[in-house]
Amino acid sequence: MTERREEGGMPADAAATGGEDRLSALPEELLQLVLSSLPSDDAVRASVLARRWRHLWQSTRAVRVAQRAARPWTARTLRGFVDHLLLLRGGAPADEFEISCGELYGDDYYDDEVSDRARARRAWDLGCAVSLWIRHATSFCQARVIKVSVRDVHRLRLKDVSFVSQSQHLTRLEIADATIKFPSLDFSRCPALEDLKMSSCHVYVDTVSSQSLSRLSITDCNFHEQIRTRISTPCIVSLQLSVSSGRAPFIENMPLLKAADVRIQDWCADMCRRKLGGYYSNRDCDLDGCYDCHGINDGSRSVLFEGLSGATDLELTCDPRAFIFRMDCTFCTKFGNLKTLLLNDWCMATDFGALVYFLRYSPILEKLTIQLEYCEKELALVVTDENYNPIENFLVSEQLKVVEIKCCKQNDLLAKILMILKTHGVPPEQISIQQNFCPPDTSGYDTPDSDGYW
Fold it and tell me: Which of helix, strand or coil describes residue 47?
């Protein structure tokens, strides 16, 4: 593009400021900082502002492709822009690499063949391209932070080659709306990786492993239904896990764990499919031949609780029909460091056994919160025995000073909880009841077949 010039051949931007080109006079570090904070397509456009800006976008310390209201990205325009951007940047390093362009719109290139097969092919091609971009970010850009969130008609199916690339610099990785389907998600070649986030993904891998991760967040994700994914991350300090469907993952020991939030959603496969009044049963199955309950051999240890047993702050919530938490209670794992605990309705199934379990096996518990999320729904648990006859007489931890019970309104479950707490030595003045509690809305969570995604 030819620069507009005033009299004497001076650039227009300089002429407008009395002959001084203030943009070009900015320090190189400041120019790079300004351009690095912009989406990459805006940074490219900014090259027309001043002569010194023409090629600065090729060496910015960040690659950002963001959602835009005007001229939304399509699969074709996104691939074309990012491919050319990385080609022209060459091997220029970038601290951050972010492709977060939201939902892609229809592409004129595919208008003549609007079929599921064409859409699947588009998603496949885009997944291959994104996988190459991730590899480029780790191998050439030496990015410390990588974020990828691209939503199409079908999920992105990422290639495992993207994640096995060696990177001495990567510290944070965020992936959303993708299918990750290969044997192992192994980050042993990324020794600096500390923070991993996966959201709304299909995580169909046998293992997730890293010796360096300290923070792990896997939220609203689908897992295998026939096998359990093993999570082997011994240095984790903070864990967030919500299982939308499939089997809950097997968590190996996390000796450094401080805080964990685990939620099991209503499409979880750890649920007995014996029908009861049109709904899945929230009672334990007594049939040895039931595949849902006994189809997977989990060995001689718990699936979740042993790995979580070192936490000081713990939230365990699930659909009351799911049995995975109750099954783990049978292993009598002790939570020796636990100080704050949040549970929901699942702990009251089978005569409130899980609630009693945590009162018994949390010797230094200081605060207990119980949320009654399902008491006004079809899945509400029913009190069958108003009395409570404890199998084992014990008193709760002397450190337990606060018990909060959150519910929509007064009900039989609340009365039974109060009876159990009183039986095991919790004085009434330490119990607070919050009524008009609004349970979290899980209706927007992804399901295995939603939106036709893989």
Answer: helix
